[in-house]
Amino acid sequence: MANLPKRIIKETQRLTEEPVPGINAVPHEDNLRYFDVSIHGPSQSPYEGGIFRLELFLPEDYPMCPPKIRFLTKIYHPNIDRLGRICLDVLKSNWSPALQIRTILLSIQALLGAPNPDDPLANDVAQKWKEDEKTAIETARQWTRTHAMS
Amino acid sequence: MKFAHEFMETLSSSAFPPEWASSAIQYKQLKKCIKRVQKELQALGLDVDMLKDGRGPVFEYMFDGTVQSFHPKLVVKVDESGGLQVGWGIDEEARRRLEELLRKLRRQKEMGERSGEQEEREGRSSMSSDESSDESVEGDIPHPHTTSEIEIPLFADVEFFHTLTSELESLDELQTKAKGSIETDIISIGDSVARVATPKTFNSRSDLYPWREVFRLYLETSIFFSTQEIESYKERTPEEAEKKLQVFENEIERLGIAKQFKCSNSKVLLEQFMGMNQMVLRVLRFQAINKVAMRKILKKFDKRTALGAAPTFPLFISTHNFLASQLARALCFTMSTRILSIIPQLDDYLCPICQYITIKPVRLACSHVFCVRCLVKLQREYKSNCPMCRNDVVLKADASNIDPSLLRFLKCYFPKECREKQRVNEREVVREQWMTVREGKEEGAEPGCAVM
Question: Where is the RING-type domain (chain B) (predicted)?
């Protein structure tokens, strides 16, 4: 990783020096484009109290193309599927090269606080969310306790 | 006792100018004054416990008037016959004495007061007892309009608060003076730095780069304020600021910036800059210690008299300049407009995509600026939206969007950074060309000549 672009170096530096509250991102020593991420579930959401692990990879073309991000911790959320893939516009069609790792992770944290069952990735979860929101939220809370707190 | 000692120590040991120490809050003198208030209250037969119990239903203590001219007053609520409210738990002896005092005061009042003022006072009193009526546990409170208030004159009390406010005023004056002199320093240092740090084009012995480093470190250390969102940009305590200032000075020393100066004047200016920051720190420390002194003396006042001034007095004078002023904020603002802004910092001229200096700068129709190389990359991929604002402007940009005055400015103030960006661009172009040549080979097309 001799030719790490200045942009990535700077972003990594700022992430460690001025971390975003509730978000942690650390690059692998042997691959500085690969980050271990953890996001705290936002308060007053069914994910509150949970710490969710994610993996983040910056492809060769970054920042011309978006980072690849996936949840590693199991999570019950209408916009996140069982493989941890995330349905979020800024990670796909609405990506802009002026966005950064920190802004994207903030968007993901916000997504946890505001699930959007009308634009689902996990169809079964979204269905439940629409039919019986109360039970769905309870399930999400249950999953948070089982998988994201240890 | 302990604080009085600590206060004197701080005043004498912190290198404050002598005229400051003499303007500081006269803690000892105020303490003596409290004793006089205490004696005065005792002479009237009002002891601490009695005042503590009776505050609210029977006694009321307030600051009357405006900050410029006020007097503290203690009033007793009495019923129509001039007697105290029944059921208030004090012993007979104390009650008799108090009633005696009230009778005396009432006689004086009737003799000396004009009737108009009296009406006004009674009108107000009925309101205040209305408010307090539900706090009182007594069932047989007389009707509001039958009660009235009698003021108990306390001369030492008036003296105490007038001394305290006049001290605050002299502190305020001192602070205004110190602020003015620091501001003058800031402006003169700023003008001198501007001369030694003009770009090389105009000044062959330019100290542009070392001074930029000084100011970059200064901003980064954020001595008097936090610049981090996580700490919500709050003002630092003098102790924190002192530590930060030390960190800054050590860093300047470690990097050997003074040795990089080519102009002999720069070294002197750097010392002046440091001295000026030390001065700001001293003013802040002086302000902080005096605020503590005021808080402590009021607490002591309350402990000895039970009049309850500690919570109300600071509110009453909260608009006072000395307490309200955001000195550090004001001075840092002057510093950033008169000194720090003289030298442009690289952070303000970075391409939001590649994080190098925006050379050559392309200004899109939405007025966002990117380096020409990143813009070309966007166009190659037919991305039409501005990365900053998503306006449909990227594909419409052409050579005429290069901002010539910004280009000249960047070349003048950031020659090294411009050359660095140039080298990075060249390397990238070479790599791209090599990739196209290799891809051509792999696709089995005409090998072609790889020499360029």
Answer: 351-390
Chain A nearest-CA distance from B142, in A, is 51
pLDDT truncated to tens, each residue of chain B (452 aa)? 578 888 888 888 777 888 888 888 888 889 899 999 888 888 877 777 777 777 666 788 888 887 777 888 888 877 666 666 655 556 677 777 777 777 777 777 777 655 544 444 444 444 444 433 343 344 444 444 456 777 888 888 888 988 888 888 888 888 888 889 999 999 999 999 999 998 877 777 889 999 999 999 999 898 988 776 666 667 888 899 999 999 999 999 999 998 999 998 999 999 999 999 999 998 888 888 888 898 899 999 888 888 888 888 888 887 777 766 678 888 888 988 888 889 999 999 999 999 999 999 999 999 999 999 999 999 999 999 999 999 999 999 999 999 999 999 999 999 999 999 999 999 988 988 888 777 765 555 555 555 54
Q: Look at A97 and B378 and tell me if their CB atoms are within 8 Å.
A: yes
- Would residue A1 count as lying in a domain? no
Q: Which of A7, A19, A98 sits opposite B388 (nearest CB)?
A: A98
The domain in which residue B194 lies consists of 190-306+313-346
Q: Which chain A residues are Cβ-neighbours of B387 within 8 angstroms?
A: 96-99
Domain shared by B331 and B196, yes or no: yes
Determine whether A65 is an active site residue: no
Is B230 in contact with A96 (Cβ distance < 8 A)?
Answer: no
Range of the domain at A106: 6-147
**What's the CATH number where B405 sits?**
3.30.40.10
> What is the value of ipTM here, to two decimals?
0.88
- Please provide the DSSP assignment of A68-131 as one string: EEEE-S---BTTB-TT-BB--GGGTTT--TT--HHHHHHHHHHHHHS--TTS-SSHHHHHHHHH
Looking at the structure, do residues B208 and B272 belong to the same domain, yes or no? yes
Report which residue type is found at B419: R
In chain A, residues with a C-beta closer than 8 Å to the C-beta of B385 are 96
Instruction: Please state the pTM of the whole predicted model.
Output: 0.78
Catalytic residue among A25, A87, A108, A122: A87
- Give A-chain residues touching B378 at CB under 8 angstroms: 64, 97
B229 with A18: Cβ contact below 8 A: yes
Specify the DSSP class assigned to residue B143. Answer: P
Query: Cα–Cα distance between B291 and B285 in angstroms, integer?
Result: 10
Token reading at B223: 């001595």
Domains contained in chain A, number = 1
